[in-house]
Design goal:
Layout lengths: L5 E3 L7 E3 L27 H6 L2 E3 L5 E3 L10 E4 L2 E4 H9 L8 E4 L12 E4 L1 H10 L11 H12 L5 H8 L3 H8 L6
Antiparallel strand pairs: 1-2, 3-4, 5-6, 7-8
């Protein structure tokens, strides 16, 4: 018969828990008594909730060490409420987030929760930051000659839409629209 590994909860309650949850995921601190940091100690304040889950890098970014979404943004729970870590940091250290605004990163590091690297802005501000950092290409008008070249090259069956996208620095979906005559530009 297989024995189930046990661990002590790291929040300080000394409760003995099964090492893995019902889905087979490794547990860390799941006693349910206290909110805990990734370092395993009790959290008392919102500032502690942030500062106990960061590592400071050479750029001064407070890189979130807790759970991260696919986008790289930290995700956390504080007092039974879920937050994006950078938004929580902004609220704790700078104040309320205005309606219609979002919390953007000056440092272009989505895992950063340093309040000095965060500012309130719009989605357009965020897109412009990404374009300026080289992380995104802003839509531009493609001239008629380029459209004709793309259609001719595609019609030879020598190039895929993906290859044409790389060749002309245009998104795959936009290449698809051009070769299927869905758009003129």
């Amino acid at each position: 018969m297989k024995t189930i590994p046990k661990i002590k909860c790291k929040c300080g309650c000394e409760k003995i828990l099964e090492k893995y949850d019902s889905r087979g995921r490794r547990r860390k601190y799941i006693c349910g008594h206290n909110i805990t940091s990734s370092l395993g100690h009790k959290i008392k304040t919102s500032e502690e909730a942030i500062k106990s889950n960061i590592k400071i890098n050479e750029n001064g970014c407070w890189v979130w060490q807790g759970y991260k979404k696919n986008s790289g943004h930290g995700n956390m729970t504080f007092k039974n409420k879920r937050y994006n870590a950078h938004r929580f940091s902004y609220i704790v250290f700078k104040g309320k987030i205005e309606n219609g605004k979002q919390v953007n990163h000056k440092c272009n590091n989505s895992s950063c929760v340093n309040p000095e690297h965060l500012y309130l802005g719009t989605q357009l501000d965020n897109i412009k930051d990404a374009v300026n950092a080289g992380n995104m290409h802003y839509n531009r008008v493609i001239n008629e000659d380029t459209i004709i070249k793309i259609r001719k090259l595609y019609s030879t069956n020598k190039y895929t839409q993906r290859e044409l996208g790389i060749m002309f620095d245009i998104s795959n979906s936009h290449i698809g629209d051009i070769v299927n005559f869905s758009v003129r530009r």
